[in-house]
Amino acid sequence: xxxxxxxxxxxxxxxxxxxxxxxxxxxxxxxxxxxxxxxxxxxxxxxxxxxxxxxxxxxxxxxxxxxxxxxxxxxxxxxxxxxxxxxxxxxxxxxxxxxxxxxxxxxxxxxxxxxxxxxxxxxxxxxxxxxxxxxxxxxxxxxxxxxxxxxxxxxxxxxxxxxxxxxxxxxxxxxxxxxxxxxxxxxxxxxxxxxxxxxxxxxxxxxxxxxxxxxxxxxxxxxxxxxxx
Length: 229
Description:
Layout: E1 2-5, E2 11-15, E3 18-22, E4 44-47, H1 57-67, E5 70-73, H2 75-83, E6 89-90, E7 96-99, E8 102-107, E9 112-113, E10 116-117, E11 122-127, E12 130-134, E13 150-154, H3 164-174, E14 178-182, H4 194-201, E15 207-208, E16 216-218, E17 223-225
Parallel strand pairs: 3-4, 4-5, 5-6, 12-13, 13-14, 14-15
Antiparallel strand pairs: 1-2, 1-16, 2-3, 7-8, 8-11, 9-10, 11-12, 16-17
Helix pairs in contact: 3-4
């Protein structure tokens, strides 16, 4: 299972000819020098909630025209896509689907912005004995999946996601084989340094990496490529 990280919370998972893309948000295209037709040959597209750093409508429209992926998302985004003539499946917390080599389960989140609880889900993706947990945007959660291979955890805080210290606590409790911090690419998060997360998690015998835009990991071989730190 090859996993590639892009901006903010955008993750591409590839396994046995099937490409699963999570949250193609606007920060992939702002100041990155890439266009909205960058993500090609996508089979499965998951959009965890409506915020633009996870759901760039023009990018999704382009992906749909190029690849015709099966789209899973929350009801708000599904309604937005329907207006564009794009079909999608509403994916709810607790739902599990089997698509190609993947088993994908929607995981509870607690994403609250200015007092509003956002309709959102995290994703637990499994293929054979490999697994990945993408939390999406969430504050600290007591309930979490077991047997996580790769954990992607947000660290930006601002009372909408976990702080670095909360992400460290969460990671210690999940006990993944590898943890990778995400969700610090917003212009609002310029003071967030993922190295601070790494420095705090290293004493807990959990492997951690910073993955930059376009960096990949082969989960089955545990091999990184790119400029990972």
